[in-house]
Write a structure and sequence with these properties.
The chain is an alpha/beta fold. The protein has eleven helices and seven strands. The strands form two sheets. It has a five-stranded mixed beta sheet with strand order 3-4-5-6-7, sandwiched between helices. A two-stranded antiparallel ribbon has the order 1-2. The two termini are about 60 Å apart.
Length: about 300
């Protein structure tokens, strides 16, 4: 045990932890087996001729010497088996961590994977960058590819998201079943928010002053500008939402869109405090806007 700890300690000191850990386990096991063999041989030699038949003690003495001689391969087999077991434990732990991270970031991950697939006006796929989106996720959660390869990790995440999507939801909500036009999208957002504890209504078509939906929950008011676009959303939407916040006197303003946001829009939103959301964020919109745990309205 002391030698194994010494090996692991050297690994921590010099950086090559796995090599030193393996060496420490091997040396520690080798020492124990060899010591056992030598003690057995010595004891048998001392007792030979005193008790029982001499052949018995001679055999035990030779057995102890043989055990000491075979200690290197025996130690190697034992250390290898132990390291394999430890590696499997680490692998299973990393799998569990990956699935936990996929659950924690499910909304953003689902949104980014959906945006990674581009289709033309006829529904044909023109670009599929889901592998790149998954690589970004793996890098963000610092996945250990020494324990899980990319193929297995991609399959695990895809299966997890698909399984979560099949789970019954209360209320029933599909962030990917969007209407066809902008006005219908505004009504869809208001209805979806109502299903998650908000009191929401659309603003009049003319004179909305930058906000399409006003939603209230737990004493807080959120104004939402809704954008159903094919191209990325720029600064103008953020500016309008910011102006609408002052005009309507709401506690917070947001732009909610099925499309991505330009870097400039993100920078402006950060500076003005306007929130940027996708339909996938609707179930947790209160928490993401005002913080705190979800409560009933």
């Amino acid at each position: 045990m002391g030698l194994a700890r010494l090996g692991r300690g050297l690994g921590g000191a010099f950086g090559s932890g796995r090599m030193w850990s393996r060496l420490g386990v091997f040396v520690g096991t080798l020492f124990r087996i060899a010591l056992l063999g030598l003690v057995l041989a010595l004891a048998a030699s001392m007792l030979r001729g005193r008790f029982g038949p001499e052949a018995l003690w001679s055999g035990l003495s030779l057995g102890g010497l043989a055990l000491a001689a075979l200690s290197p391969p025996l130690a190697w087999l034992r250390a290898r088996r132990g390291l394999r077991a430890a590696q499997e434990v680490r692998r299973l732990a990393e799998r569990a961590r990956l699935l936990s991270e996929a659950d924690r970031h499910r909304a953003a991950l689902t949104r980014n994977l959906a945006r990674a697939v581009r289709r033309n006006d006829y529904g044909a796929v023109t670009s599929d960058k889901r592998p790149e989106a998954l690589e970004e996720f793996f890098a963000s959660v610092k996945l250990d590819f020494g324990l899980i390869d990319r193929t297995e990790a991609s399959a695990l995440v895809s299966e997890r998201l698909a399984g979560r999507k099949r789970e019954p939801r209360k209320p029933r909500f599909d962030p990917e079943s969007l209407p066809e036009d902008g006005l219908a999208f505004e009504a869809w957002v208001a209805e979806a928010l109502s299903g998650f504890g908000w009191t929401a209504q659309t603003t009049p078509g003319s004179g909305d002053q930058g906000l399409d939906v006003i939603a209230r929950r737990n004493g807080k008011t959120l104004g939402v500008q809704c954008k159903l676009y094919r191209s990325p959303i720029g600064n103008r939407a953020v500016q309008e939402a910011h102006a609408g916040k002052a005009f309507h006197g709401v506690d917070a303003a947001a732009v909610l869109s099925n499309a991505a946001f330009t870097p400039s829009a993100r920078a402006l939103a950060e500076a003005t405090g306007v929130k940027l959301f996708s339909p996938h964020d609707i179930p947790e919109l209160y928490e993401k806007t005002f913080g705190g745990r979800r409560r009933s309205a």
